[in-house]
Amino acid sequence: MTTSRPTVTVGIGAVSFEDVINVARNNAEVKLSEDALAEIGKSAERIRELANHEKPVYGVSTGFGALASKHIPLEMRTALQRGLIRSHAAGSGPEVEREVIRALMLLRLSTLATGRTGVRPEVAQAYADMLSAGITPVVHEYGSLGCSGDLAPLAHCALAIIGEGYVRDENGELYETADAMEKYGLKPVELAEKEGLALINGTDGMLGMLVMALDDLDRLTKLADVAAAMSVEGLVGTDRVFSADLHELRPHPGQGDAAANMLKVLEGSDIIQHHSGNHSTYVQDAYSLRCAPQVAGAVRDTIAHARTVAQRELASAVDNPVVTLDGRVESNGNFHGAPVAYVLDFLAIAVADAASISERRTDRFLDTARNRGLPPFLADDPGVDSGHMIAQYTQAAIVSELKRLANPASVDSIPSSAMQEDHVSMGWSAARKLRRAIDGLTRVIAIEILTAARGIDLRAPQVPAPATAAVIDRLRQEVQGPGTDRFLSPEIEATVEMVANGELLDAAQSVTGKLN
After folding, report:
1. Residue 136 host element (H or E)
2. b or e along 346-382 (b: 16 or more beta carbons within 10 Å of the residue's beta carbon)?
3. For the stretch 135-161, what's the b/e string if a residue is b when 16 or more beta carbons lie within 10 angstroms of its beta carbon?
4. Number of other residues whose CB lies within 10 A of the CB of residue 230
5. For residues 436-446, b (16+ Cβ closer than 10 Å) or e, as one string?
6. In sequence order, what are the residues at sequence separation of 6 or more whose Cβ sits closer than 8 angstroms to the Cβ of residue 37?
7. Which pairing describes strands 174-176 and 166-168: parallel, antiparallel, or unpaired?
8. Which domains does the chain have, with CATH numbers?
9. Residues 6+ apart with CB under 8 A from 396
10. What is its main location (predicted)?
11. 58 annotated active-site
């Protein structure tokens, strides 16, 4: 049975987070609204008027960047736009992921649809048609400084709509663009005044990666709370520190949400019931258990700030020069990626710390001085078996990498274009390292859950909380329980997959209901 594809309609207003995810990750078809096509047509007429004006207009009748003072004759302007795209398609390195390129193209189309860029309707339609056909331009890792737009990545996409360069189809097969266009019934566009410039001046790549990172982190933060609760349970900690009245004393919203999640996951746990009275020999838990909501909450509040920035950027028309609502064509600096770059770096810091506290909880399970009665390294026959000893090494290696990735890209700037572009954001680089960081966090959480599940199983006959049991039941469909040493890497990868696709979170929420 064929699964129907979603459809995203791009209008004059902002595209939504859901629109970006549907196009980038769910292969949605893309349409332009009639209102957007009409508005695009109006600004295109204004650019045509200015093209014949005696007064030079940047990007319309002049060169670019440090060459902005050079007037371009009318007969050379088509060649100017085509040459701009060819010369700026200068990326190098590995190919960028398909989902990133599709998000980038959708967001550039969203700006075109505002009618503030001066392109003709057929240029915008070419982007919608290419996205709907599932054709993805080949874009390379390096080439954007996050200022004057994500220049090289956007130029590789613009190169495709003029029928040049390379693309891949939805199955990943590589084509010369002209061949792919012929196969899918598309026609190349001949660019007019300003159109080449309008296709490469935007924060679309870094913004697309930010939106997808937020989508990933919405799921991972909830599952990190589940993992923390499982560790508290497996280490015979207390859930009293998650009580709402304690967190109301320090009313950070994310902290309260995280604590409430942990309480829900631990509800009904037989393992931690001895903490309900006054007979516990443990005065208080270690920070990695007791302070889990405070760290998880700070991560959540950082995500909330980043979401606000992303929403503002989605509502923006980023181009230079821009066609104003009253018909002026004005140079501006809205293409500078600083607002997006800062939150991308901020998220990388939060991701590194979320992974760091997760690794500390895992390590506690393996040390008999701290694991409250469990065998060394959770091994079946310690000495003969090593248990999860090296799983923690893997976590530690990832966490160390995440700390390096938390070093901000946005504090760096290398001048370009003969010092005309003398301060740049490095936002693309910030986005690329955040994607790697989120992959690392996914793996660290997976190893914590794998280890906590083993620790909880070793507490039998004490019974875990229903939500915890549901997570372990789903895990055990792919990964065996405690026993002698086995080939561990496939078990880690299977758990990583269940973390990434949301199956373990779904298992917990089947008991708790939707978590915060």
Report:
1. strand 136-137
2. bbbbbbbbbbbbbbbbbbbbbeeeebbebbbbbbbee
3. bbbbbbbebbbbbbbbbbbbbbbbbbb
4. 29
5. ebbbbbbbbbb
6. 121, 124, 125
7. antiparallel
8. 7-202 (1.10.275.10), 209-512 (1.20.200.10)
9. 359
10. cytoplasm
11. yes
Q: pLDDT digit string (tens) for 180-220?
A: 999 999 999 999 988 999 999 889 999 999 999 999 999 99
For residue 270, what are the contacts with CB-CB under 8 A and spacing of at least 6? 462, 463, 464
Quote the CA–CA distance of 348 and 354 in Å, as a whole number: 10
| Backbone φ and ψ of 379, nearest 5° | -80, 150
Tokens of 202: 């935007």
Amino acid in the structure at residue 346: F
Q: Kindly report, residue by residue over 33-86, the tens digit of the pLDDT.
A: 999 999 999 999 988 887 776 677 776 767 666 566 677 777 777 788 899 999
**Tokens 């049975």 sit at which residue?**
1
Backbone angles phi, psi at 142, to 5 degrees: -110, 140
Instruction: Look up the pTM and report it.
Output: 0.94
Place of tokens 């939805």: 170
Residues of the chain with pLDDT below 70 are: 1-3, 53-54, 59, 61, 63-69, 274-283
How far apart CA 36 and CA 127 sit, in angstroms, is 14
SS3 labels along 390-415? HHHHHHHHHHHHHHHHCCCCCCCCCC
Place of tokens 């047509």: 41
Tokens of 242: 């998650």
Contact status, residue 33 vs residue 9, Cβ threshold 8 Å: yes
Contact call for residues 391 and 447 (beta carbons, < 8 A): yes
CB-based contacts of 516: which residues, under 8 Å, 6+ apart?
Answer: 222, 257, 258, 260, 261
